[in-house]
Design brief:
By secondary structure, the protein is an alpha/beta fold. It is built from seven helices and ten strands. The longest helix has 34 residues.
Amino acid sequence: MTGKIEARKLTKRYHVERTGRTVLALDNVDLDIREGEFLCIVGPSGCGKSTFLQMVAGLESVTDGELKIDARAVQGPGADRGVVFQSYALFPWRSVVGNIEFGLEIKGLAARERREIALRCAHSVGLKGFEDAYPNELSGGMKQRVGIARALANDPPILLMDEPFAALDAQTREMLQEEILSIWRKSNRTVLFVTHSVQEAVYLGSRIAVMSARPGRIMTIIDVDLPYPRDVTSAEFGNLMKPVYAVLKDEVLKAAREAALEPMAKASA
């Protein structure tokens, strides 16, 4: 199973038609995501961390620079990447199994094989007994389990997760963190996990990439050398959170200063 991701001087610009302005979202991002690692990205709101994940997923184009997976340029979505979104993105007219089967249908697998795979994935994330339920019958945590199972159904070497637990209650979040760690450690997949929670990043990640305020750049990468399972109450855990918070604090203050100065700059222009 492969899954090495390489970004070199990766840049993303958006043209905003309403204002006629060009927004620089990512600026010269250099990042290597190693095969089989669990890399978490944290950064201030609006820094471009989700944009980077969507570019890796092939859902956003590259403006400048290079983005490669296993030495091949990313040119769109592919079966080698499973994506889990914060918003669940389930089809309300499909059952749990029907949602999980969707990508397998696109691949043209026979109905019996699709169902076998979908059932196996549903059971692996704790959905046994809910195979025929519909999204409106599920809690938020169960919907996210469906999203994870759907991403796993194609057996992708890379799993991309964009703040998947942000909208969940604390207990459900902790349960799903354990589920995804178990899946990762058994499968040796490469996981790219975007989160706004420093504690979650330290709890899950083998490394943490800290991004700057917009335009997003990689400020630092921190190795998390704590063994699994991790104790969030330990001194070692707290000590690893400190440098991440320190970088984020500086970036948040910088963004606030720039936001305060922007109206004055426009007025003098």
